Amino acid sequence: MKLSFRRRLISVGVAIGALTLVGAGIGTAQASTAQHSRPASVKPTVVLVHGAWADGSSWDKVAAKLQHDGYRVVTPPNLLSGVANDAASLRAYLDTITGPVVLVGHSYGGMVITNAALGDKQVKALVYVDAYIPDQHDTVYSLTSAVPGSVFAAEASTVFDQVAIPGGDPHYPNLYVKPSVFGKAFADKSIPAKDVAVLAARQRPLAYSALVEEAGPPAWRTIPSWSVIGKQDAVIPAAQQIAMSKRAKAHTVEINAPHLSMVTDAGAVTNQIEAAAKATN
Asked: Where in the sequence numbering do the catalytic residues fall?
């Protein structure tokens, strides 16, 4: 009986030892896994900034595609009041966002994001869509007229309707694109005439001062950049977009689209934005 009891004790001891070894192995495996696992990357917030004579709805197709792919998207209003003021307004908005940001600008929005993102460590990428990519001291007017081909490189009275800003300098009115010019500038045959007419009817004005106000030091010197160039753009000629993109060392894609490429080819524009987003992870 004593021998049998002793054998049972030995068996229990062996079993406990085995469990202890197994437990130690599990703990080691878990520790090893914890050491080598990486936290899931957080997708950046995509901030879409519209251009002149437009509003956030110009981004609707792109925003829907980005949201479908799991991105948080915001389209804050661009004041269209002047480069410095518009950039300051956007910068204040960016300060409310937690986490990484991909900042996207269309047309005049490129002027704004270039100035707003300077020194902002949350902004991981800049994306220019048929946009101005200014260097310091550049203006919308100087960049528009740098090469031939822009509808807006003309006498202001022939392309814009001017409306005085109450209490403002009469030499710096608000500008609306003439309905007869709007379609030639922004669209092509891929956008139905009735849709162009709606866009022209609801356009928001751009302050004349925005055309002549100089840009500050550009954020693209320190933040990686991407660009989408519409080869049929009649506002910012493709040759000028290419020159600005090269200067900014932007990752560039050229598409057969007019100035409103995010409307006519939302897929290509979304792909370039997502390429920028993935490169930030």
From this structure: 107
